[in-house]
Amino acid sequence: MTAADIITDPDLRAVLDAATLAQQQCDALLALLAEHPLPPSSSRPAENQMPPEVAEQISSAQKALHAHLAAVRNQNRKALLSVRATKHATADARHEVDTLHLALQNLYYEQRHLESEIKACQGYDHPYQKLPLMPEDEFAATFPDVVEGCREAAQKAVLERGDKAGGGESGGEDVGMEGGDEDTAYEEEVFEDALMKARIEHEHKERLALEEKRQGLLKKKQGLIAENNKRKEDLAKLDESLEKFIEAAKPIEQTFQKEY
Q: What's the distance, CA 74 to chain centroid?
């Protein structure tokens, strides 16, 4: 596998291509110098020791090599700038990913918190569950009109819910079936809630009636107690009167007991 197969970035490929051209030009220059080696140093200048056409070829090759090296430096500078930009983009993307990951963890935490709150609410021991309410069967047999009203209220709630959520939505047969099951479950939930409220309201009215009856009996009891207290006072006064009468009658009794 060559470097060209490993490197896929366009900027790095441009650097590699420019370096390859510079290498080829350098090899060509070295081959040209190998074909026309310079003689040992002498008193004459080096450019006078080789033919003019060879010197011109070497000069042209050196200029081409310098041009390729300049292209390599230029492409290398572009690649470095591209790497810096990629690093900045990677840092920004990492920051965004970290932010999204943190938000996701917060959502997971909130989900677990809400699930625990829902379980706590579902398992809460509500006081109304301990009320001695009339059983549902007995309530339905005693107040069928109230039960029918609860059923109608549940059906109306389902229709209102469908009107709010159904705006221009369209779905297939499976969606319709799922929606029907959901509506049925929602209707039963609303019906159970309305029925429970009706039973609690009935228990409240019964307790109010019993409380009113208890207050009436309490007043009657207080009246009887007051009447009994008054009779006790009258009897106490009668005892005092009898004692006084008996004390006053003693002389008369003694007079009748005397013998003449």
A: 54
Q: Both tokens of residue 78?
A: 């572009």
Phi and psi at residue 143, to the nearest 5°: -130, 70
Q: What is the pLDDT of residues 92-139, one digit of tens each?
A: 999 999 999 999 999 999 999 999 999 998 888 888 778 888 888 999
**Residue that has been written with the tokens 């009246």 in this structure:** 223
Rounded Cα gap, residues 88 and 82, in angstroms? 10
Q: Tell me the C-alpha distance between 195 and 189, whole Å.
A: 10
126-182: per-residue pLDDT in tens?
887 788 888 889 999 999 999 999 999 999 998 988 888 765 555 544 545 456 788
Contact 65, 18 (CB under 8 A): no
Residues 216, 194: Cα–Cα separation, whole Å: 33
Identify residue 113 by its one-letter amino acid code: H
pLDDT tens for each residue of 220-257: 999 999 999 999 888 888 888 888 888 887 777 777 77
Give 3-57 as a DSSP string: HHHH---HHHHHHHHHHHHHHHHHHHHHHHHHHSPPPSP-SS-GGGSS-HHHHHH
CB 11 within 8 A of CB 75: yes
34 or 218: which carries more pLDDT confidence?
218
Contact criterion met (CB below 8 Å) for 156 and 186: no
Q: How far apart are CA 148 and CA 140, in angstroms?
A: 9
- What is the model's pTM? 0.45
